[in-house]
Amino acid sequence: MGYLLAGLVLFFGAHLFTTFRSRAPGEDLRTRLGEGPYMGLYSLVAIAGVILIAFGYDAMRPAMLVWQPPVWTKHFNILIQLFAFMILFAAYTPSGHIKKTLKHPMLVGVKLWAAGHLLANGELNSILLFGSFLAYAIIDRVMLKKRGDNGPPAEVKAKLSGDLVAVAAGLGFWLVLIFWLHPILFGVPVLPM
């Protein structure tokens, strides 16, 4: 459990620092260090966190069962993930209706992804991992709103093409993950064999 906790502290420590850092002129560390060095250091810490998270999560298997999810939650999670991926991809496409409506689709997608996995997994390692992502996404969204960051500016026109790309990419990634990638990356098949 130590590796997982250390990874979560490193990964979310870097992310929370960014969330709460001062953006006041002369106080913003990103400006003082410069974009390249700041992002380089941030990336190194975040990558080290991801490596520790992956190693720690796997080392805890089989993990203590905190609660036994009903079978239907696993099926419902599969559907939730479809929408989570479409919304996640909307964060990186031209501003469509999804991005304009949700304002910060990356955080909405992460919240859906994490909540779906919490619903379907009752092991301690899963609760720690997905609970951390859900908590971070909520905190970051609150801080963005507090800073007045309400997503794409009102004058930006929503483009249907952005939505179509997000839906197609999300659906494609979801299918690849379900039928091929999830067991390879995470050692757990999504669908029963």
Describe what you observe in this structure.
The chain is an all-alpha fold. It has two domains: 1-60; 63-193, no CATH class. Helices cover 73% and strands 0% of the residues. Helix 1 runs parallel beside helix 7 and helix 4 packs across helix 8 (160-186). The protein is globular, with a radius of gyration of 18 Å. The relative contact order is 0.14.
How many independent structural domains? 2
Q: What percentage of the residues does DSSP assign to strands (E)?
A: under 5%
- Determine the N-to-C terminus distance: 29 Å
Give the overall shape.
globular
User: Helicity level, as a percent range?
Assistant: over 70%
List keywords for this structure.
193 residues, single chain, mainly alpha
Please sum up the structure shown.
73% of the residues lie in helices and 0% in strands. It has 193 residues and is mostly helical. The chain has two domains: 60 residues; 131 residues, no CATH class.
Strand and helix map with partners:
Blueprint: H1 2-20, H2 29-33, H3 35-59, H4 71-90, H5 97-102, H6 105-120, H7 124-146, H8 160-186
